[in-house]
Design goal:
Number of domains: 2
Number of helices: 2
Radius of gyration: 23 Å
Helix content: under 10%
Distance between the termini: 83 Å
Strand order of the largest sheet: 6-5-2-12-11-8-9
Largest sheet: 7 strands, mixed
Number of strands: 19
Oligomer: single chain
Order of helices and strands: HEEEEEEEEEEEEHEEEEEEE
Strand content: over 45%
Amino acid sequence: MNLIFVWKAFLLAVFSSTIAQAQIAGFYPHADTLNIAGGCTPPIIYASISEAPADFDTIKISPGWNTHIWIRHSIGNEEYFDKVYFLVKDSLESYTYKLWLIHETPNLNSPICVPFDSTFEFWARVFDLKLKVFKENACIDSLVQNFIAIIGVGLMSERQSKVIPRFYKLWQNFPNPFNPATEIRYNLPAGGSNRLVSLIVYDVLGRQVKALIEERQPAGMHKIIWDGTDMLGKRVPSGVYISILRTGDFTMSRKMILMK
């Protein structure tokens, strides 16, 4: 009986230790496989670590330029997301997180460590994103999310009308630096039907270079091309320019570099 008691106590201790070390609460949205697609380029994501006021933080995966993330439900309808994320316990000061891309067919380029706070392209057709949690160089928890990537889908023309963002956002222009033109994308969420929107380019001295948008627009994902010209249609010199999106109480700016 004593041996049985000791064995049960040992198992309980091991089980309790495992539970205590578990740091990843899950992945949102909950789906076996997520779809990610790019237009004329491979899908692009932006991975970041976001602190939350509650007991959990997020490892956020946001779609980048000309990229969408969605799931296809069993009844055939599609649901789009402006971000997906791993949910982790509030422990950024005590643990280290690493995100890995794992191809369906392992090769010399897999796995690849996905850097945080930077854009990352996906060339693999089927891949996993694996989050690992480290404490003192030892992996104590991990979770895998599967993706199917599609390249060559006309996203902004075919799918834009289906995507209603949940937040205002001015995306970084692409390409950047650029010459002679660059694309600027921005999100307008639901709740402000046909709001007045302005998107204006300034130089570093705060002088207006060109008003790209000054009109009322509906919710959705929008884009416009700046061809590097001023209000008179003249080519502007190389340098740093600022794009500023304003609508209602929202204002956001991005730095753009024209390099000839």
